[in-house]
């Protein structure tokens, strides 16, 4: 590749359950160099660790295979290289799954890299007494810890791309770093050019939620309509060697890309815009400006950065009890009053088993389940309303009781409750800590078809 | 008038912290937002939903305010009892604030 020319990166997924067709459109019509799939939430990692413990061949994103079946041939034939964190708790098994898809399609000479080293559970356990001094919350959860994964930066992905990988599969990597890596690889950016790395992180930050840049999560008609949302397209960044960037999407795809959608996404999950901490650089978005340069085309400039942190963020996941839930609907005249009576009965019933206000919620969906604002008075006469009771418990049997009690309102509660639902789920608690950078040693391994 | 007439907003979540960006449709109206939509006003609007402090960052050149709401997500996405555990709807609820004409 000629480092003087621009590089084009597409966002193929913004979360593990994301739609696949927009990535296919990007591969076919996006004139891409790289296609990046961000598929890993905090909770997903802990669940994947549990899967891997049960079965060493699992523990990666179950939708990876479907994505690769749809995209691997197209990307290889167009020389588009793929980067994804869909490896979750098991990048090696995920890489093997990619190779299996390739072999089934008789795709020769495909080089797949697996990036590991984010799993720091053994280290945290070994130095638990030191970490407990810094993070006293570890004391209470020590026996229930499931996983501890560090957020890796771009470096190991850059190394994999430098060595010619067609597909790079990682576990936990900071989301924007997945996109920074192809830029560092392509332009040979210095790993200490902080302002330039800050510009690269801006590219990654704006792309990492895919459709949220191109009109997804934006429509509020009639004030802000978004055209053809059923065919929403995902974004493309065209980046120059100096970090200048223009965002666009496939012509003809649905959605909307303008200064307003970009401004919302710039601040998404950001606290201090001048200090957006990543493993590669502390990015500064405070001076970013957007300019509409064409239909569904926006140029961004003004990002910068300062030196990377000495420590890496680690998320410790642990078993944190259970949540039980039950729901029941009321409709027609006086529905609100009957539902409130049902809620009162539930509070009395559940107090009897020791569930107080701190770990019990009784609310009416459609009235006050989301908008628990002090200034919003309850709707006086809703046409229909749904009681929701949810509680945290230490054990699954107590959690199941919540739904059972709500269901019992069928024959024991107010008139004409209908449509009972009940459920129990295990709660995975997350405790963020940090570890010295030097103890995290990323590794890259390769396999070919 | 309501904030919804003047601005759009988006929530993001990290642990038990919710951030909400508020962006003026017309940058000429941003001074009104900056004057009226203080961190205290936002804290008061959310009442008991937000247990911790609220911090505000001003990005005047973008016509945007970024509010960081601590202890706003019932302990975080995973352990929250809220139907909207991510606090995604909080952005829209913020747009319900009444502003002077």
Brief digest:
With 449 residues, chain A is an alpha+beta fold. Helices cover 32% and strands 27% of the residues of chain A.
Give descriptors for this structure.
heterodimer; A: 449 residues; alpha+beta; Alpha-Beta Plaits; ten-stranded mixed sheet; five-stranded antiparallel sheet; 27% strand; B: alpha+beta; 4 helices
Question: Describe it for me?
Answer:
The complex is a heterodimer of chains A (449) and B (101). Chain A has 449 residues and is an alpha+beta fold. In chain A, 32% of the residues lie in helices and 27% in strands. Chain A contains 14 helices and 18 strands. Chain A has helices at residues 21-29, 42-54, 64-77, 91-104, 121-126, 128-134, 138-141, 155-162, 175-187, 194-207, 259-266, 335-351, 396-407, 409-412, and strands spanning 7-13, 34-37, 81-84, 111-116, 145-150, 167-170, 235-239, 245-249, 276-277, 282-284, 289-294, 297-301, 304-306, 311-331, 360-365, 384-393, 418-436, 443-448. Chain A has a ten-stranded mixed beta sheet with strand order 11-12-8-7-1-2-3-6-4-18, with helices on both faces. In chain A, strands 5, 14, 15, 16 and 17 form a five-stranded antiparallel beta sheet that branches. In chain A, helix 1 packs parallel to helix 3 (64-77), helix 3 packs across helix 4 (91-104) and helix 9 (175-187) packs across helix 10. Chain A is globular, with a radius of gyration of 25 Å. Chain B is an alpha+beta fold and 101 residues long. Chain B contains four helices and four strands; from the N terminus they run αββααββα. Chain B has a four-stranded antiparallel beta sheet. Chain B has a single domain (3-94), classed as Alpha-Beta Plaits, CATH 3.30.70. Classes of the chains: A alpha+beta (449), B alpha+beta (101). The interface between A and B is large, with 48 and 37 residues.
